[in-house]
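Changelog-adjacent note: as of this version, every example in the card shows the full chain rather than a window. The one below runs 411 residues end to end.
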Amino acid sequence: MSDFADIVIVGAGHGGAAAAAQLRQNKFEGSIVVVGDEADLPYERPPLSKDYFSGDKSFDRILIRPESFWTDRNIEMRLKTRVTAIDPATKRVTFEDSGSLGYGTLIWATGGAPRKLPIAGSDLKGVYTVRNRSDSDDMVGHLPSVKNVVVIGGGYIGLEAAAVLRKFDRKVVLLEALDRILARVAGPDLSKFYQDEHVAHGVDLRTNVAIESIEGADGHVTGVKLKSGEVIPADMVIVGIGIIPAVQPLLEAGAEGGNGVNIDSKCRTSLPDVFAIGDCAAYAAKFAGGTVMRVESVQNAHDQAALVAKIIMGQDVHYDAVPWFWSDQYDLKLQTIGLSTGYDQTVTRGDPKTRSFSVVYLKSGKVIALDCVNAPRDYMAGRKLVVDGVAADPAKLADPAVALKDLAVPA
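Full-length structure tokens:
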């Protein structure tokens, strides 16, 4: 096993796997080593709170590529290996167990670690986060003995997990600290729709909730104590309150950043020959008015990986991809295009009671994002509205009889 590689990719998730694959697709012939801290080959993360958790997909079906793909392309996978330090002067990464690896170019694609609750009892058995395969496997293994589940966090992870748990007929209480679910990613109309849906499916959904502690007996969770004094019984607690970007070795090596590592329009960090991509990378987002932010999506990781591969092969390209996201809950497919950050007007297109509608977000009269619920045509046509920054008549946007594609004339 060599102690040098032309390309070292730290992180074996969506971004890292895509970067390695794209390099070979772009005819890169040098050595590539992908370093991952899990035991498994790269696999898809979104199913962990959806169809893998529910049992609708086996692990083999969520592998990004079969093992033969990596071996056939001479891409070395160093798994169960964690990078703890980087020396940009000597261009080496140091591993947690022992040893180091030199690089010609480094691609940092580590994503992040689940944010933990800073309260007593958060380390009890039966308290889970959903970030990797073992998290999901542990929850599935525990589920047969579980009757009461408390889900903490009203973002996509928490809501998706709640939907699966209701499918299994478990009693679910979902707690959100803010005044509505999805408050960080969507407007009030979408929040209300999903809150109503979860309540209709039997979820005890509570907002504006402050948690005091997690209680337990014999090392295992028994309940969640609120600051009001109420204790909610729980055999299982699922915490979905975001991630902390895994960039400490980069920052300690002198890279610029804070909430993630900062990158430019070519995904370059401030360290020489070091790129960063995916959930851990903060950049000036074109579709958020230049706001420096991290975008946590599979699309972002894939598109940045493809861009870095092209840059390494000598192409002069910049990152300006429009973000998109999705979420599956019950029989609802939510598809989002664009970033609603800073919107000043919303238009609801269609009737939410039909469970097929879209929310269009505008800023200064221009379309910046759409949330489309069971409305794939709106999603496909809305993409052009967002990319072109179309200034559309709100009355026409609200009328389902008016095709969105007919409004796609750049402002």
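Structural remarks: The radius of gyration is 22 Å.
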